[in-house]
Design brief:
The complex is a heterodimer of chains A (248) and B (227). By secondary structure, chain A is mainly α. Chain A contains nine helices and no strands. In chain A, α2 packs antiparallel against α8, α3 runs antiparallel to α4 and α5 runs antiparallel to α6. The relative contact order of chain A is 0.17. Chain B has 227 residues and is an all-alpha fold. Chain B has ten helices and no strands. Classes of the chains: A mainly alpha (248), B mainly alpha (227). At the A-B interface, α5 and α6 of A face α8, α9 and α10 of B.
Chain lengths: 248, 227
């Protein structure tokens, strides 16, 4: 019953599927981000308190969300690889980690750029900023643990376990706002019912969020192809593929 | 194979670990001396004012305790893994989880509990009032126990790595930050005349959480390394 799944999770199949999916993800991401950027920067009304400075939210909030999303997806892929011994899961986790870390850096940088005009400082020891920084440290730990072993497979499994353990930190990040009495503004999008944001501001934000997710998917596919190739470099199908490429 | 119950095995491993620890007293004392030394650095590095010291005291105490605990963590599994004892223990017929619990508890007794015993000395130097000592001891006890469990996961993951110690701190410290926050907050509250029970309860919750789940995670980590 599960044969189709194992066939789909075999490295050559993953390599091909990821190659086929990547352009669609990236194309759709370009559309959504283009709409979000133009509408968010040019047409959405300025905030009545923050003026035009609020517009950085169109980059900041999606990257903060993606930094968490990428971490959870990395841990999920690693957990699946650990439990069911599906090697491709480790490749997905290894491909996701640097992307997630980059989103974390982007969220930190845009947050501090926004903090300069709003709080008067580039860095405040605000709990949410701090947890984002801790998330970056977690990424650093996972990535360096993967490379710390003579045997690559051992590093993969160790990093996957650490990622799963680190997921404990994700809810702590989420609830840190309530726990540590923050000066960061509360969540405005996730309120169920009436959102605290005007629809003219909200639509471009949602478009950017969707665009960032699609961008993540596309880049993940491309990095996954690279991971699979380098992990399978001894395999016959890679050699055949490379020969076919060079003859063409 | 001799028939030994899980609790008897736990006791045997704890006794063995303690015996080994007390045969190398220098390794036992070094983290404690480090703890004292780091807390000395702060008054020397900062402009010494008693009021300032009183404000930063709880945080300094906790940071120093965290760093001192990091020093001894690397030895938790490494010596036994290198001379093959760990594999023998794993083959003993008792689950790796039992071995992990025993080794971690023994490690906590000679590191975390020892830090708690030395802490009044450090606290006096940091101008933490005597009335705050019970809360400080409670926060350090709960926090260092939770830290030992987190450290067991980290030590299990890095025991087979090429370069262990820095990596171990890199992995464990981010996970330990909530402990630092609540631990320091508890002492801070009681110095300010407030009620420290809130942060202490949260610390106790984190400690319980770590105690119940971390042994399994650490055993899984060791299994990855031993395989």
């Amino acid at each position: 019953m599960w044969t189709w799944f194992y066939k789909l999770a075999s490295p050559p199949a993953v390599f091909r599927t990821a190659g086929r999916l990547a352009p669609w993800f990236l194309g759709a991401a370009a559309l959504a981000i283009a709409y979000g950027t133009v509408d968010g920067l040019a047409f959405a009304p300025p905030d009545y308190q923050q003026g035009d400075a609020f517009r950085i939210v169109y980059v900041h909030a999606p990257s903060a969300w993606l930094s968490l999303f990428a971490y959870v997806s990395m841990a999920l892929a690693g957990g699946i690889a650990l439990v069911w011994r599906i090697k491709v899961g480790h490749a997905v986790a290894a491909a996701a980690a640097p992307i997630g870390a980059s989103f974390t850096v982007l969220a930190l940088v845009t947050g501090s750029l926004w903090g300069r005009p709003m709080w008067g400082t580039y860095w405040a020891w605000d709990p949410r900023l701090t947890s984002e920084l801790i998330l970056l440290f977690l990424y650093a730990g996972v990535m360096s643990l993967r490379g710390a072993f003579e045997e690559a497979a051992r590093g993969d499994r160790a990093a996957a376990l650490l990622a799963v353990v680190g997921v404990v930190n994700v809810p702590i990040i989420h609830y840190s706002v309530q726990w540590w009495n923050s000066l960061h503004q509360g969540a405005t999008v996730a309120k169920i019912g009436k959102p605290a944001m005007a629809p003219s501001m909200l639509w471009p934000l949602l478009a950017m969020l969707l665009g960032f997710m699609l961008f993540y998917g596309g880049v993940l596919c491309m990095r996954l192809r690279g991971e699979v190739l380098s992990r399978e470099r001894q395999a016959a199908w890679v050699r055949e593929l490379m020969q076919a490429r060079s003859e063409r | 194979m001799s028939r030994v119950g899980a609790f008897a095995a736990l006791r045997l491993v704890v006794v063995r670990e303690l015996k080994l620890a007390f045969r190398r007293p220098d390794q036992l004392l070094q983290p404690l001396v480090f703890f004292l030394m780091v807390t000395t650095l702060f008054p020397l590095g900062l402009n010494l004012r008693l009021s300032l010291l009183r404000e930063i005291g709880p945080g300094v105490l906790w940071v120093a305790a965290l760093l001192a605990s990091m020093l001894s963590l690397d030895a938790l599994f490494r010596n036994d893994a290198e001379d093959g004892t760990l594999e023998q223990l794993a083959l003993s017929g008792h689950g790796l989880t039992v071995i992990v619990v025993a080794k971690t508890l023994a490690h906590w007794l000679v590191s975390g509990a020892a830090l708690v015993l030395v802490s009044p000395l450090v606290a006096t130097a940091l101008a933490i009032p005597v009335e705050a000592f019970p809360v400080m001891a409670a926060s350090l006890t709960l926090g260092s126990l939770a830290l030992s469990w987190l450290g067991a996961i980290g030590a299990g993951l890095t025991v087979g790595a090429k370069r262990g110690n820095v990596l171990l701190s890199l992995i464990v410290l981010p996970l330990a930050m909530p402990l630092l926050i609540f631990g320091a907050a508890a002492i801070d509250r009681v110095i300010g005349g407030g009620d420290a029970s809130g942060p202490l309860y949260l610390l106790a919750a984190l400690c319980t959480f770590a105690t119940t789940l971390a042994p399994f995670a650490a055993a899984a980590a060791l299994r990855i390394t031993l395989e």
